[in-house]
Hints:
The chain is an alpha+beta fold. The chain is built from 14 helices and twelve strands. It has helices spanning 10-21, 27-40, 55-65, 69-79, 87-99, 218-233, 240-263, 271-283, 290-296, 301-312, 316-334, 339-345, 351-362, 366-373; strands at 49-50, 53-54, 113-120, 129-131, 138-146, 148-151, 156-158, 163-167, 173-177, 183-191, 205-207, 210-214.
Amino acid sequence: MLSDTGEITLTDIARDIFFYFEGKTSKKQVQRSLIKLFTDAGQPENDRQIIGTPLDSGFDRLLSAMNIESLFVEWRPLFHSANGITGQQATRFIQQLFSAVESDQQVFDYLNVATYVTFKRNSWSDHVTLRPHKKAGWTLHLTLEGSGHYNCIRTQLNTQPGDILLFSPTAYIHKQLAEDCDEWNYSFVKFQANDRILDLLNWPEIASGIFHIKAESKQELEAVSSTIGFIAQQGWSSDASEVNIRSRLVEALLLRCNQIIESNGYQRTDSRLLTAVRYIDDHFTEELTVEKIARAACLSASALSKLFRKNYGISVMQWREEKRIAAACNKLIYSSLQVSQIASQLGYTNAMYFSRCFRRQMKMSPSEYKRLHQPGNDF
């Protein structure tokens, strides 16, 4: 049902999405509503694309990623009530819907693509993005205006224009609009790391798999932003030649970022430390010791411990702990496993010890985290 002016309202969009999942709204109608949703949020209007992919496949992939079943119990009575839902309720429903997207791998191919995103206070875009699981590739975020908040488990970061974050496939991503900001504009790039660019990914690491630098000058910010813009202009085609062209542009982007690293005196990570970190990434659920990790990096245990303290400010085993806790967050939200089962899968000797470790990192118990972040709950 349209408004009196014939415009599609947020209430209309929420109704179209909900009733589509009940089989009562046509695919064409939901496509129109989703295009309106993204256009109002600042995405360029294009009748052939939605979130950067061809309309039909983009529509199907986005909706398949939404965990709508978890919302039915709460929302079905409201959508079927005589009065329908209010604009405020429509906003909250769409916020919950996007917060409940379990994996961006269902939406994005990480085939060297880029786009722009806007989060606005008290709008449907003011939702939490939580990606604790392994991704299909690397992600780069550049804050253009406003501020975003990133919970990196050990590190809390509020970005400013020029802040550039790089996330490895195993990184824990938990972001939202910063509390003291009404709008956050940022661009992102999702890409594959081929042999040509591996050396360009040696950035200062602020948390496990999360790297951070800052474009300090207007010229540096413009150089990075314009390169991302050029990648975005190339589209999202999965044709091999197009993907390869965008790969070259991603390489140019990372070269720009490495210029910032060099000119601003950032300290690069010792390659042996990177080897140790990657070894932990691959084996963090196993029984590990500092000595075993050090051997993989061709270092003594004492040398590795000193490198960790110098570069990250924490111990080797604390770093491993962060990896296990990030994995636990994923399992708590997206599986039906009991806390004791999750603890066992992640290599903890007992559930009580796991719960103590989890509370130390996340400032809440595993059960509290599950209740807070399960799809369908407000953040």
